[in-house]
Amino acid sequence: MRPDSAEALKAAGNAELNSAEFAAIAEIMQRDARIHLATGKTTLVQSRLSRRLRAHGLATFRDYVRLVASDAEERAAMIVALTTNHTHFFRENHHFDHLCRTTLPWLQARAQRQPVRIWSAGCSSGEEIYTIAMCLLGQDSRSAAWLRHGDVRLLATDIAPHVVESTRRGLYSAETVAPIPAAYRESWMRPVGSDFQMVEEARALVTARVLNLFEAWPMRQLYDVIFCRNVMIYFDDAAKAELEARFVEMLAPGGYLYIGHSERLIGAAAAQMTSCGQTIYVKQCDTA
Ligand SMILES: C[S@@+](CC[C@H](N)C(=O)[O-])C[C@H]1O[C@@H](n2cnc3c(N)ncnc32)[C@H](O)[C@@H]1O
Does the pLDDT of residue 11 top 80, yes or no? Predict the structure, then answer.
């Protein structure tokens, strides 16, 4: 059967995922991305993976489970299909209030003496890192001057290559940019047809990379600010604690960690962090 034949498409769409097949898929997600799939997610997994079955002309999940067992490329595609990439500009705005009022003056003072590094871990399509960038740039060209004189770099990483590519492009629909305050939008976005793109000065601050947070991190220096929001909710407690410990280790003393609204620090690393706002933590200075 040809993968794109009407018969193949119909068969893939009707394929049902049984509990053994779900368990095999959940085990791969846990092993490779540390994403925990609860059994209640069977319908979601079935509908999101039916596209993958169609792409390979497979009619059953039994055949798909066999394929992912032996094909690393398809395992990566499966993980991407099962990630949730929901995000938006100025999401959880209290974080950006804190960033502008408290963290920004600290970063500006630091940038006079040393490099400044900021990381959006699990960046999705880039709205988070560009919201951070606009807070640093300020409302006009004059407020951005400090960035032109310092060594300030923003890193955005995600396990899903297609969202990393969107981050690099920095191109968003009119609907997506609607939550951005007008002054920021007018200074740091330009219209491209009916869409809007982050201007070159904003994009040049950002490096976007594919990175599975549970693999080795290539960064060599400490980070001043880490955003990891609405990512750890997908992991089990052991994975969360492991990741928290690595974030805390990667933070410079006095650096800030921002996590999602429904998240909290649960591991031993929390002892090195002080809460300084809703889901905002600062690394204690004597823990270097
Ligand atoms: C819901 S989005 C959050 C986006 C943004 N941080 C926000 O709060 O708006 C979660 C992102 O985490 C990414 N992700 C999930 N597991 C990951 C892993 N093991 N390594 C890296 N990124 C991961 C997903 O691909 C997805 O883009």
Answer: no
